[in-house]
Amino acid sequence: MAAGTANLSEKMVHPAVKPLSDLLGTWKGEGEGFFPTISSFNYSEELQFTHSPNKPVIAYSQKTWNLKSGQPMHSESGYWRPKPDGTIEVVIAQSTGLVEVQKGTYDMKEGVVKLKSELVGNASKVKEITRVFKVENCELSYVVEMATSLTDLQPHLRASLKKL
Ligand code: HEM
């Protein structure tokens, strides 16, 4: 476990993961949730990207809490698989039971990872999910949009986090 942290020496980071190594570590911050069909809400979040030495994959895990009450909210975890050609595939399992296969691109000169769902499974109403992550000045921000059976693609989450 301890070896799978951001403190890996440069040469232990797999070449496929190296372009995304700014992500590795633990991030904490706050976000806001909204959607046309629900009341908006605020949450705190802890997010981790870890890497096992010499594996071409980043493990991802996220937990959220209600900002006012501290009660746990949504959590999810998965794996990010960057390819040398700038494409990336991501699998995520959510605490609600929903699963996602996301495909997209990364451009770490711009500090941007863009993902669009290729598969959303075990979901009662979610049809599509997009996720855009940005890393800039030691800040990680993201926007998650979703489409449901009743609503077109619209933002559901926006957050910004600092590396611990
Ligand atoms: C509502 C999906 C992440 C908190 C919803 C709804 C869906 C959904 C389908 C119901 C919308 C409707 O009724 O029209 C998702 C997906 C997520 C995600 C696909 C990730 C990709 C999160 C996160 C949080 C969260 C991270 C908390 C930090 C909520 C809350 C509601 C909600 C509080 C309103 C519930 C209610 O009023 O009944 N979400 N969600 N969601 N979501 Fe998410």
Automatic annotation (TrEMBL):
Coiled coil: none
Domain THAP4-like heme-binding residues, every copy: 17-163
Lineage: superkingdom: Eukaryota
Reaction equation(s) it catalyzes: peroxynitrite = nitrate
One Pfam entry name: THAP4_heme-bd
PANTHER family reported for this sequence: PEROXYNITRITE ISOMERASE THAP4 (PTHR15854:SF4), THAP4 PROTEIN (PTHR15854)
This protein's name: THAP4-like heme-binding domain-containing protein
The species this protein was found in: Solanum commersonii (Commerson's wild potato)
Lineage summary: Eukaryota, Viridiplantae, Streptophyta, Embryophyta, Tracheophyta
